[in-house]
Amino acid sequence: MDQERLIGDFSSGGSTSPTIIVMAALHGNEPAGVIAAKRVISQLEVENVGFSGRLIAIHGNLAASKANVRYLDYDLNRLWGKEPLADPVIRKGCRELDELQQVKKLFLEVVSEAKKTGPVFCLDLHTTSGPSAPFLGVADNHSCLDFARHFPLPRMQGLEKQGISGLFYLYAAQQGIHTVVVEGGQHEALRSIDNLEAAIWNGLLAAGSLEGHCLTMVQDKYRELLRSQTAHLPECFEISHIHRLEENDGFKMRPGFSNFQSISEGEHLADDNSGPISSPFRGMIFLPRYQPTGSDGFFLIREGDSD
User: Fold this and answer.
1) Residue 31: HSE in the Cβ half-sphere, 13 Å Cα cutoff
2) pLDDT tens string for the chain (307 positions)?
3) Where are the extended beta strands (E) located within the chain?
4) Are 138 and 156 spatial neighbours (Cβ–Cβ below 8 Å)?
């Protein structure tokens, strides 16, 4: 097993217990998930009270993390489940292909072993470049939606319908794994680490791995931490518009926007070489890009069906 890529691995309980996989730092400028996973595993190692199962945490893009950049040559979270060499940009040379090969090998080894002993769950941990409340991303299938409903967080659905391919969480869901993306907040915010830690504990609870002291702690402390930041938000939302970027288009988001902020039709959101970019309709802004890399400038969202 790739020890450098392994953030931590803790097991306790019987041979038929669930496995919870944490994938952290698929983007190298998002260290909060790594820190959060280490916190949870350290606490389990010190006071293993009421945990049954296996919690294993994997570091996604090690090379980019060492450089503290989102990616070196290509977004690692756009390379899953497709043929990378079909992209001419990747054919020119892409260090993320090595990262993909290594992290996928470890991930599939863990999944293969875990499926022999019980159900498998996965949390894909991220943070955002702009201010944000925590939220989930979830694939549009029953097992993932059932898992997501155990979290006191709003959930984003239907991203696969927007033509965005190569996302890790969709790949994991296709492997039959109960998977959610957890966005913990802004990259630099200390609360983002707390939110992702709370989400991991909540994932252990949803997987059925907690009882006794751990169960009470999650219910009383960590669920309330997440709920207190999101009670004003819809339970479910869907993407209604994506502003996609072109190479060297000079895109720059106007300052001051945060996730879930209400916007008006015609509101000036950003600029590029062609001039001002305005909202095509009224809604909420989502994932405004305040970092130099990324293929999408911003999303617009609307409240979705929570059933």
Assistant:
1) 12
2) 678 899 999 999 777 799 999 999 999 999 999 999 999 999 999 876 689 999 999 999 999 999 999 999 999 999 998 776 667 767 777 899 999 999 999 999 999 999 999 999 999 999 998 888 999 999 989 999 999 999 999 999 877 777 778 999 999 999 999 999 999 999 989 999 999 999 999 999 999 998 877 788 888 899 999 999 998 888 999 888 889 888 889 999 999 998 889 999 999 999 999 999 999 999 999 889 888 877 889 989 888 776 6
3) 6-12, 19-24, 53-59, 120-128, 135-138, 155-157, 178-186, 236-244, 252-253, 262-263, 268-272, 275-278, 283-286, 296-303
4) yes
The SS3 assignment for 219 reads helix
Domain 6-230 has CATH 3.40.630.10: yes
CATH fold label, 236-303:
OB fold (Dihydrolipoamide Acetyltransferase, E2P) (2.40.50)
Q: Is there a contact between 70 and 294 (Cβ–Cβ < 8 Å)?
A: yes
Which pTM value belongs to this model? 0.88
Residue 264: both structure tokens together: 């008006």
- One-letter amino acid of 89: V
Residue limits of CATH 3.40.630.10 in the chain: 6-230
Angle between helices 190-206 and 32-46 (to 10 degrees): 50
| Angle made by CA atoms 154, 159, 161, in degrees to the nearest 5 | 135
